[in-house]
Amino acid sequence: MASYNKILAVVDPSSEEQKSISRAIEIAEKAKTQVTALLCIYDFSYEMTTMLSADERETMRSAMINERTRWLSDVVANIPSADRVDLDIKVVWHNRPFESIIYEVIDHQYDLIVKGTHLHSTLKSIIFTPTDWHLLRKAPASVLLVKDHAWPANGNVLAAINVGTEDSDHQSLNTIVSEHAAYFTELLDANLHFVNSYPGTPVNIAVEMPEFDPRNYNNTVKDYHVDAMQEHAETYNVHESQCHVKEGLTEDVISQVASNIDAELVVIGTVGRQGISAALIGNTAEHVIDIITCDLLALKPDGFKSPLEL
Length: 310
Prior knowledge:
The protein has helices at about 20-30, 55-75, 95-110, 120-125, 130-140, 170-185, 205-210, 215-235, 250-260, 275-280, 285-290, and strands at about 5-10, 35-40, 85-95, 110-115, 140-145, 155-160, 190-200, 245, 265-270, 295-300. The protein is α/β, with parallel strands linked by helices. It has two domains: about 1-115, 3-Layer(aba) Sandwich (Rossmann fold), CATH 3.40.50; about 150-310, Rossmann fold (3-Layer(aba) Sandwich), CATH 3.40.50.12370. A ten-stranded mixed sheet has the order 3-2-1-4-5-10-9-6-7-8, sandwiched between helices. Helix 3 packs parallel to helix 5. The longest helix is centred in the N-terminal third of the chain and has 24 residues, at about 55-75. It is elongated and about 80 Å long. It starts with 5 loop residues before the first strand and ends in an 11-residue tail after the last strand.
């Protein structure tokens, strides 16, 4: 059963409104967990002070940290319900925010990272890797990317699964996604939905084999996924009306269903692919981030190790 004991809320230094802290507090109030608001700072003018003594450089760095600590204290003090949860603040000096976040998770065993997110351009997604994409690929904890969608009672949580696979790793990830989605469904007094996509008829087969019946093929594939979905849903007492099996690209199907049911939260597994394949192809979770309007919870498979940990 999924549970969260320690939450790390990543602070956006460019914004007075901290969606991540507000969402982390909302979860902590219901789950009775501890929250740390983490602000990563670095001033590149610090690199130009090498002519100063070590003490002078440390004084400069400490002054910056103290100033941002006071700012963060004021921000937290103005967030409703902040005084009703166990909440700490922490400011760290690091020139690569995603690394400082992941090291914080590794060193202090956080279960959940909460971070506000923004739209990324396609060009930027290839040339520059935003911090939240690094976290999706490399963080050992669950990552909750927060947008502006509210979490009202009796809302909808959408779990994206792949019931059409016989691969044991994907089946294990289905279980992880479903259990975390069920946890948030109970926590938020919400309704649990499942979504699964399946591929359409391969065009080349229809062209090369005149006797091939694409309609029969499509119906067979769909029936297989519907049956597998119903079997999976029974485990979590989810009614068939809340199971969505559709043909199409995974990210398009997830986005469409999330919009149709006005989901508060989409839960998805990510394989944490890295390197050239991740930069050019991208993980499904990364494609989904920019086309849904609600929060996204990205989960790693069992046994995942962060490359920073290794």
